[in-house]
Design a protein that fits this description.
Elements lengths: L12 H9 L7 E5 L4 H10 L3 E7 L3 H6 L5 E5 L8 H9 L2 E3 L3 H6 L2 H7 L9 H7 L1 H10 L7 E2 L9 E4 L10 E3 L2 H13 L5 H4 L3 E4 L4 E10 L4 E14 L8 H7 L5 E8 L6 H19 L6 E9 L5 E7 L14 H7 L5 H14 L9
Parallel strand pairs: 1-2, 1-4, 2-3
Antiparallel strand pairs: 5-8, 6-7, 6-8, 9-10, 9-12, 10-11, 12-13
Helix pairs in contact: 2-14
This protein binds adenosine monophosphate (AMP).
Length: about 375
């Protein structure tokens, strides 16, 4: 297949708007990569009356056939083929608006998405760059007034419990806890031996204060049309092996030298104490405000804050995702917070499709597409 090589600077919004101009508005389809939260996105799209397109690897096709939500399946060898000219052309022929999710950042080169993907995307693709850079994220969150965990620039600075994040780590795999520079090098060696990382990645490991508390991941949706940040759900993660360790008595844990890691396996829905909602809502508002300054027009649609809440009910945010998160899959159908806002049947995939439908209806699709 031929890979698109059209230009090396970021695609102008105008260019995407021109592509949209040529779309048949009554035949717009919603597409994404077959992975992550694709079923959530497709179900929502269908419930809002759209046809759907799944760009999928052969080995995962079964998922998208068994759950009959993809009207078109475009088989590719790997996800990078989304950038191939013939795949892009097919998507444009299908009048597709792509909805990005975590696999776009994980498996595609960010510059290629920004420079070579000539298919309209829901959301603000400029923010994807902020999302993949931990330091940029940190600046964004701090500017929004959120509490963030301390960062150790070098292993020698570690002065308490810290979490080590390898750069290549996907979904928490290979993260580990350390409490000194010695324990860092010792455990890093073990992780490399287990194949969770490589010696080259060791150099760029991100060391962050480990905040002791519980994980809470609020999922928000910023509607440009309503000028409102909606709280649509909340989850916590189910991570292997750290969430399995409590089932093994301490004595055996010590004997077999378990070094837990944080490979994400799934998500669990939660609700929080009602008094926490005020702060969680304000955090969402502030993050959107700052996003409008750093990458206008700011966040369009879904985003998620990854937080730890301590026993003093302090909320620390250690990451932001400026797109739909897999945790919102726990809300497919509805979640308690989406129910409070919308009643039955609202969830992230559907909320995205609803916004696109509203954009088509009011002739303002260009405001939510980049
Ligand atoms: P991430 O890939 O950054 O979402 O992190 C994966 C998992 O590591 C999270 O779900 C948390 O369980 C844990 N984690 C990451 N950073 C921190 C932190 N600074 N303090 C406590 N737990 C963390």
């Amino acid at each position: 297949m031929v890979r698109g090589r059209k230009q090396s600077s970021m695609i102008e919004k105008e260019h995407i708007c021109n592509i949209m101009e040529n779309y048949e508005k009554g035949k717009i389809t919603i597409g994404t990569l077959g992975s992550h939260s694709a079923l959530n996105i497709f179900k929502g799209a269908k419930e809002e009356g759209f046809r759907t397109v799944c760009v999928c690897k052969k080995e995962n096709e079964m998922i998208y056939r068994r759950f009959p939500l993809a009207d078109e399946i475009v088989i590719v060898k790997d996800f990078e083929c989304l950038l191939d000219d013939n795949v892009q052309k097919r998507l444009r022929q299908l009048n597709t608006i792509l909805v990005p999710h975590g696999s776009f950042n994980a498996y595609l080169d960010m510059d290629e998405i920004l420079n070579k993907l000539y298919v309209p995307m829901f959301g603000n693709r400029k923010l994807l760059r902020w999302e993949i850079d931990r330091e940029l994220q940190r600046k964004w969150l701090q500017r929004a007034g959120l509490k963030v965990p301390k960062r150790f620039k070098d292993a020698s600075e570690i002065d308490g419990l810290a979490i080590a994040k390898f750069p290549g780590a996907k979904g928490g795999k290979g993260y580990f806890l350390v409490n000194s520079s010695e324990s860092f090098y010792d455990k890093a060696e073990y992780m490399i031996k287990r194949g969770h990382s490589t010696p080259e990645e060791l150099e760029n490991t991100y060391l962050q204060e480990y905040v002791v508390g519980v994980n809470v991941y609020p999922q928000y949706f910023h509607s440009i049309f309503k000028n409102e940040v909606e709280l649509l759900g909340m989850d916590k993660r189910y991570e292997s092996t750290v969430d399995g360790i409590g089932r093994i008595p301490a004595l055996e844990q010590l004997q077999i030298r378990i070094i837990p890691t944080y490979t994400i396996v799934g998500n669990i829905p939660i609700t929080v104490r009602e008094r926490l909602l005020q702060q969680i809502l304000k955090m969402g508002d502030n993050v959107v405000k700052v996003s409008q300054e750093i990458a206008p027009p700011g966040i369009i649609g879904p985003f998620c804050l990854e937080t730890v809440i301590t026993d003093n009910l302090e909320i620390f945010t250690f990451e932001i995702s400026a797109r739909i998160v897999a945790g919102s899959n726990v809300g497919i159908g509805t979640s308690p917070y989406a129910y409070l806002k919308y009643g039955e049947g609202m969830y992230m995939g559907r909320r995205i499709a609803r916004e696109i439908k509203n954009g088509i209806g009011n002739g303002e699709l260009d405001k939510i597409i980049l």
